[in-house]
Amino acid sequence: MRGKPGALVLALACAVTLAGCNDHSLSLTLTPNPLVVGLLDTSATVHAHVVARGFGSVPFNSVQFAVFNSDNSMLASQTEAVDAKIPAGPFGIAVDKDYTFPINGALVALSGTKYVMVKIFDPNNNLLAQSRLDIDVHLLKGLSIPSVLQPAVSPSP
C-alpha cells in the first residue's frame, strides 16, 4: 500500500498538468513598432510573430483590424474571415510572417491615425490574442532633400 499513494499523487499531478496545458494560448507581436510612414508611402511591411502554447493546434477564424486616432476613437474597423490552425506546443511554437499591405501616407496623416489594434478570434469569437501597432507619420521620409539644404563639406586648409 505504500507505493500506491505516491502513484496516485503522481497520476493526479500529471492529470492536472495535462488539463492545464490543454488550454491553448496565443500571443501576437507586431514589428516594427512604431511603424514609420512617409507622406508619399503607398505600402508598408509588418512582421507578425505568433506563439502558440498548449497541445495540438490553436484554431482561429477571424482577424480584426481597428484603426484609432490619438483620442482613442475608432476611425475604421475591418474583420477578415480566416479558417486556420496554428500548431501548439507546451513550450510554445512560433510562427513568423511578413505582411505587406497598401497604405496611403498622406491619408494616414490627414485622418489622424495613431495606431491599429489587431485582434485574433477563435471559432467561438473569443479573443485569442491582440497587439497594438503604433503609427508615426514622418513628413520627410522618402523625400529627397534639395542640395541647397544639405551641408557642404568645407575644404581642409
Structure summary:
By secondary structure, the protein is α+β, with helices and mostly antiparallel strands.
Q: Key features?
A:
157 residues; alpha+beta; Immunoglobulin-like; five-stranded mixed sheet; three-stranded antiparallel sheet
Mean pLDDT over the residues: 83
Shape: elongated
Report the structural category: alpha+beta
**N- to C-terminal distance:** 97 Å
Note the beta-strand portion.
over 45%
Provide the helix percentage: 10-25%
- What is the name of the CATH architecture? Sandwich
Strand order of the largest sheet: 2-8-7-4-5
Number of distinct helices: 2
Gyration radius, rounded:
24 Å
Major sheet: 5 strands, mixed
CATH fold assignment: Immunoglobulin-like
**Count of discrete domains:** 1
Strand count: 8
Helix and strand string, N-terminal first? HEEEEEEHEE
Q: Using the coordinates above, name the CATH class.
A: Mainly Beta
Unreliable stretches (pLDDT < 50, length at least 5) are 8-22
Q: Mind sketching the topology for me?
A:
Layout: H1 3-22, E1 25-31, E2 35-38, E3 43-53, E4 57-69, E5 74-87, E6 93-102, H2 105-111, E7 113-121, E8 127-138
Parallel strand pairs: 2-8
Antiparallel strand pairs: 1-3, 3-6, 4-5, 4-7, 7-8
